[in-house]
Design brief:
The protein is of the alpha+beta class and 460 residues long. It is built from eleven helices and 20 strands.
């Protein structure tokens, strides 16, 4: 039996509509638009508005604030993949004279450079970028709030610096590079640095009265890489699909996976949230959500996606405060994931099974700890504990006959098959750990040797 998801079930759709309707009413926002994507296609759109007949749709632009940072991070990773910089490079190597040249590109991407959270007054989000003509005006005099690399401290100026880095290496403006290297290849025609009709207007809603005040929509100048963009739910879901699968025209799958891995602990504490390379990583109701939140005066935005559930959600609204769009988006993911769990792909055998690799599969022991080695696609291997939690990893084959760890405890470590003089497999060597076919196999090169009398009972 095959499975096709043309649209969500009516009950799921009503639950989604109820959630955003409640959010618009309780959050007292002029309008709110949301969309859900599964299997790479949009399966639901919904919106609410305070003006009858003028509800936004998937083509209506809203300002997305700090969601812009994810785009900037993609551009930096492209430079790395092209060999134009290394993430461990000090900033000074590519952008001298900033006064913060010792911090690394990686630290800037993950908000661990120790820089201040905001630029000096006046409030950069509500004033024109012409007030900050140079990086010195963005960074201010007190550039270091914490020692670099020691903790997560969110920094808007840090992403302004990354935008300047992109411009220095590319020899073109951040906006031009963004358009050429991300927006055009991904077909994001409704994402731009300035609003393009149809677009929502930004509003502040009085906290104690049902009254509104228009918010200014400033060009942020050098701060643009931290929060300038306008976009739509349809475009942002295209971006979400890219952040899951990668796209060789923009950034390969391995690099977007790298973006999703936490780079430093979050200020929220272990288990609650972290920050990758331009992506937030949060835990909600037992599932991992990736994406980014965003806000600028007059607008709130969130993109969350769950790889395990194959659900991506965008929520956009045009109010300075009120609706908790991060929570709303997480709730929409949960509604879909719980009501319509992802249907697993059919099991299929490998295209081919190398007999020599097949002979390596099965149980292996690190000391007395039982582990299982499995064969995966493309001559890959996967090692993990036989039961319970423990150290494990996926491994990718290398031309010299070894394997390199991709994740987990053994990420980056080398797995070698060690053979005895007659060519038979003796043991596995993994970062100096010896894995044998039997617990402390006396026929293998177990560090420290094995007691000659072997295993014994209490009375021996």
């Amino acid at each position: 039996m095959t499975y096709s998801s043309e649209e969500l079930l009516p009950g799921t759709q009503r639950a989604l509509l109820h959630r955003i309707a409640s959010a618009q009413a309780e959050g007292r926002t002029p309008s709110l638009v949301a969309a859900v994507q599964r299997q790479g296609r949009i399966v639901w759109n919904g919106s609410r508005s305070c003006v009858d007949g003028h509800a936004p749709d998937s083509d209506t632009q809203f300002r997305i604030g700090s969601l812009t940072k994810t785009f900037t991070a993609v551009l930096v990773l492209r430079l790395r993949d092209e060999g134009l910089l290394d993430l461990d490079d000090p900033l000074e190597k590519h952008l001298p004279g900033t006064g913060i040249g010792g911090v690394t590109v990686l630290q800037l991407l993950g908000h661990s450079a120790g820089l201040s959270a905001e630029s000096p007054a006046p409030w950069w989000e509500r004033t024109p970028g012409t007030l900050r003509p140079g990086l010195a005006d963005v960074l201010g005099e007190q550039t270091r709030m914490h020692p670099p690399g020691r903790r997560h401290h969110y920094s808007n100026p840090g992403y302004s610096v990354l935008g300047a880095l992109i411009e220095a290496v590319r020899g073109a403006s951040w906006a031009e590079v963004l358009q050429r290297e991300i927006l055009e290849p991904l077909g994001m025609r409704r994402t731009s640095t300035r609003p393009q009709a149809p677009h929502a207007g930004g509003w502040a809603v009085h906290p104690w009265a049902d009254a509104m005040l228009p918010e200014p929509a400033e060009d942020l100048g050098l701060m643009a890489p931290a929060g300038q963009l306008w976009s739509t739910t349809a475009d942002l879901l295209r971006f979400a699909a890219f952040l899951v699968e990668g796209d060789d025209r923009v950034l390969g799958a391995a690099s977007v996976e790298e973006m999703r891995a936490p780079s430093t602990p979050s200020k929220f504490g272990p288990g609650e949230g972290a920050y990758g390379l331009g992506l937030q990583v949060v835990q909600k109701s037992g599932r991992t959500l990736l994406g980014h939140t965003g806000s600028l005066p007059g607008f709130l935005a969130t993109l969350w996606f769950s790889i395990e559930d194959d659900v991506a959600v965008v929520v956009l609204t045009n109010a300075t405060s009120g609706p908790l769009v991060g929570t709303i988006a997480a709730d929409l993911v949960e509604i879909v994931a719980e009501a319509e769990p992802r249907i697993p792909e059919p099991w299929r055998p490998l295209p081919e099974a190398d007999p020599e690799l097949l002979a390596l599969t099965g149980p292996w022991y690190w000391g007395t700890h039982p582990n299982v080695l499995r064969l995966t696609a493309d001559r890959g291997l996967e090692l993990g504990p036989l039961r319970g939690d423990g150290r494990g990893a996926r491994f990718v084959a290398q031309p010299d006959g070894t394997w390199t760890g991709l994740d987990g405890y053994y990420a980056g470590e080398t797995l070698r098959v060690v053979r005895d003089v007659d060519g038979r497999v003796s043991h596995l060597d993994l970062g100096s750990f010896v894995f044998t076919r039997e617990p402390y196999d006396p026929a293998s090169a177990v560090p420290g040797g094995v007691d000659a009398e072997g295993w014994r009972g209490l009375g021996a």
